[in-house]
Design goal:
By secondary structure, the protein is mainly beta. It has one domain (about 1-770): TonB-dependent receptor, beta-barrel domain (Maltoporin, Chain A, Beta Barrel). It contains four helices and 44 strands. The strands form seven sheets. The protein has a 22-stranded antiparallel β-barrel. A five-stranded mixed β-sheet has the order 3-9-10-7-8. A hairpin with a 6-residue loop joins strand 36 and strand 37 (about 645). The two termini are about 50 Å apart.
């Protein structure tokens, strides 16, 4: 019955819009509705220059840094609840890897040589690896979610869209703030920021922010202390910025650092074959631990860690991310600005992949060569030590921005180079038919690679004065050349090397018209490109071709009733060719896969966003997203018969709910010199699959994430005068209905089991911030 509600919700918003309706593409960013001026203007950089969001013919959601701070949103996983058609999920066993999808397009392979389907940018710098996508958002001005291909201005691997993170610039005046908070599961943080203002009589100003946060985890491991429970974390983050204003030249240097260490979220075996259950259930008969499994979330469990590459038994995974960027902005004339963005970034990850969720299991094992019985030994469904995963990248972008008469233009050159390496020591027990014995195997998967990308791009917008600049015609294009190499080592002997080269031309054309100062409609045709490459999780060279997308989009951006209502709508059709299909194939060789260009997909959908401020201090905001996935072709090679068949009618959308919904309400009321603020958010999404085919993932139905609802609330008093300083105090709660749904599932197929991580239970806490 629920799915019938969403079309009615969309129709209701459209009806209101025709009479006077509104929504923020900003989610709840501009929520300072205590004034009588209506909703504030929202500035975004969706076209690589600062513009009002309501004038940009792009589907974009923007969230302000102040809003993220009030909501204690620490990384991008929480954005899923606030932006339509967006999925951001933490990958099991990693502290910094994320799976990001927009409008049904993305990538769930976290290897160090796998390209993203949604580009992530920090201050204009592309973050190449999904393994480093999750880091603490310490000092942000705003986050923009750009939906649809952004291949012209943002380049390759933005076939689904882009997440654009913009950090705060140093303030003109000296000041600072300190914020701390405490919540359930001994979850606490402290964060500080200092702005120098302009130093002395110079034109240089700087700022530095630092944060420490940690918690004790929320699934009890009965074999360890509380600080090593599943889900525990210690994280330290630093962001520093220095800006100099030298007349026509502005120079900004940014540095970011993020270190996370802790025991990843508990991965629970939820289902298994009869043979696997029979085999591991015998463990207590041999003096081993009981076999823990089941579809319902467990609270008291066992986990034995894993012996790392140094011979030490560990439970924790850690990651370290650092980056430097230098942005030079030179105003050569009133008609031309030259901008340079130079960046160097490094990423390191060392994870303990405990995908067994059990204590020390014992079982009968056979020698893997002779198949003779070699006794009762420790057995394990699957564990590993990814040690290390390394990546470093250099990028240089040169932009030329300007205007001449009715024309605005942007052109540029781009260069990117990266080198990466990954080594994964695995341990697994392959259960034999009948479940009476197993083989202990220790595959080693190691690989490295390089990637080099060069591009030239340009975009021109024409707003004729003869039409009072109501019409805008934009044309843009980007030519990209990619070169990649791969080196497979580990159990591959002799090692294998390969190299590939691709080129692509992506382009867009958009037409928009302002019917009134508050109502703009647009049509947009754009293309996108996700680079090809090599699949590293195999023992042979497995190259694959790039993906390409063509998107037809129409949209409306509107404001009514003296800017008290805002409504934005986008509808699209995406034709997606050469889909890179990853068929997970865990077996005696460990966690392996095959990547082929097997698919053609058509995606249809819409997003509608609305904000209403009926009276000063009161705001309602909401969004709805709908994505319909239709596979036109999905080729599958049967490993038993080596025949290829089209199974498009069986394929399921991955990491993509059909419906996403968000409703929020906020009320702020002056109390003397302070302000009381109360906010409640409700979000809903329909079910999510993690594998496209049941024939390759036999437990796909059992590990899918069912429809999920989330309720969070916050009550705060802000701006309390402390005699020159201001105090904000708030209490909050998340997952207030205590949903226990699967968050992320993995089907191990031929190993005979599947498992999942679960959503964090209900949490609540208090925080306080002092600004001076």
């Amino acid at each position: 019955m629920r799915t019938r509600v969403y079309p009615l919700f969309g129709i209701a918003m459209l009806t209101l819009a025709s009479g006077a309706h509104a929504q923020t593409d900003n989610g709840p960013e501009q929520n300072s509705a205590t004034s009588t001026k209506g909703l504030e203007d929202i500035i975004v950089t969706a076209r690589r220059t600062s513009e009002s969001m309501q004038n940009v013919p792009v589907a974009v959601t923007a969230l302000s840094g102040d809003f993220l701070d009030r909501q204690n949103i620490v990384d991008s996983t929480s954005l899923t609840q606030l932006a339509p058609s967006l999925t951001v999920l933490p990958t099991p066993n990693s502290q910094s890897a994320g799976t990001v999808y927009i409008r049904g397009m993305g990538n769930h392979e976290p290897s160090s040589v796998s390209e993203q389907g949604v580009g992530i940018y920090l201050d204009g710098v592309y973050l190449a690896r999904s393994s480093g996508a999750l880091f603490d958002l310490v000092s942000l001005e705003r986050v923009e979610v750009l939906r649809g291909p952004q291949g012209t201005l943002f380049g390759r691997n933005t076939i689904g869209g882009a997440l654009v993170l913009t950090s705060k610039k140093p303030a003109d005046e000296m000041g600072g703030e300190v914020k701390l908070g405490y919540g359930r599961y001994n979850d606490w943080f402290v964060r500080g920021k200092i702005d120098t203002g302009y130093i002395g009589n110079s034109n240089i100003k700087a700022s530095i922010s630092a944060q420490h946060r940690q918690n004790d985890g929320w699934v009890n491991n009965t074999l360890t202390g509380g600080s090593k429970d599943f889900g525990s974390l210690k994280a330290n983050s630093v962001f520093a910025s220095v800006e100099g204003d030298f007349g026509p030249l502005t120079a900004t240097y940014n540095f970011d650092f993020d270190y996370r260490s802790g025991t990843p979220t508990y991965f629970q075996i939820t289902t298994a074959t009869d043979d696997v259950i029979n085999y591991y259930s015998q463990s207590p008969d041999f003096g081993g631990a009981p076999f823990l499994y089941g579809p319902d979330r467990l609270q008291d469990v066992q986990g034995t860690g894993f012996v790392d590459q140094n011979g030490k038994t560990r439970f924790n995974s850690y990651s370290r991310i650092s980056g430097h960027s230098l942005t030079l902005n030179y105003e050569a004339s009133d008609a031309l600005t030259i901008k340079s963005i130079t960046s160097y970034r490094r990423f390191l990850q060392n994870t303990i992949a405990d995908l067994s969720g059990n204590g020390e299991l014992l079982g009968v094992t056979l020698d893997p060569v002779t198949y003779d019985v070699d006794g009762i030994n420790v057995v394990v469904p699957y564990k590993g030590n990814l040690a290390p995963q390394r990546q470093h990248q250099f990028s240089q972008e040169l932009q030329f921005l300007g205007s001449s008469g009715d024309l605005k233009y942007l052109g540029g050159l781009y260069y990117f180079h990266e080198k990466s390496f990954e080594s994964n020591r695995q341990a697994l027990t392959f259960v034999l038919e009948g479940g009476d014995a197993g083989l202990n195997l220790y595959p080693l998967q190691a690989f490295g690679g390089t990637s080099e990308s060069k591009a030239v791009f340009g975009q021109v917008s024409w707003t004729p004065s003869s039409l009072d600049q109501k019409l805008e015609l934009t044309l843009g294009g980007r030519y990209t050349e990619d070169k990649k190499t791969i080196r497979l080592t580990g159990d591959v002997s002799p090692e294998l090397r390969g190299k590939v080269k691709f080129d692509n031309f992506s382009w867009l054309a958009s037409l928009s018209y302002k019917f009134t100062p508050g109502v703009m409609a647009y049509m947009r045709f754009s293309t996108g490109y996700r680079s090809g490459g090599f699949n590293p999780r195999t023992s042979t060279l497995n190259p694959f071709e790039p993906e390409k997308a063509k998107v037809y989009e129409a949209g409306l951006k509107s404001e009514f009733l003296d800017r008290r209502l805002r409504f934005n709508l986008a509808a699209y059709i995406t034709d997606y060719d050469n889909l890179q299909v990853q068929q997970f194939a865990a077996g005696s060789g460990g966690a392996t896969s095959l990547t082929v260009n097997a698919g053609k997909v058509q995606l249809k959908g819409f997003e509608a966003e609305m904000t209403v401020t009926p009276i000063p201090g009161l705001i309602f905001d909401g969004s709805v997203g709908y994505t319909d996935t239709k596979y036109k072709q999905f080729l599958f090679r049967d490993p038993a018969t080596d025949t290829v068949s089209d199974v498009a009618d069986q394929a399921k959308p991955v990491y993509t709910p059909k419906w996403t919904l968000h409703l929020g309400g906020e009320y702020s009321q002056p109390i003397g010199d302070a302000t009381m603020r109360m906010r409640v958010d409700y979000s809903h999404r329909t079910q999510v699959y993690f594998n496209a085919l049941n024939i390759t993932a036999p437990f796909n139905e059992e590990i899918r994430s069912p429809a999920d609802d989330n309720v969070k609330a916050r009550l705060s008093v802000e701006g309390i005068d402390l005699g020159g300083s201001k105090l904000d105090v708030g209490i909050w709660g998340d997952n207030l209905t205590n949903q226990k749904n699967i968050l992320y599932g993995i089907d191990f197929g031929s190993l005979g089991f599947a498992g999942a991580t679960f959503k964090k239970p209900r949490t609540y806490g208090i925080d306080a911030k002092v600004s001076f």
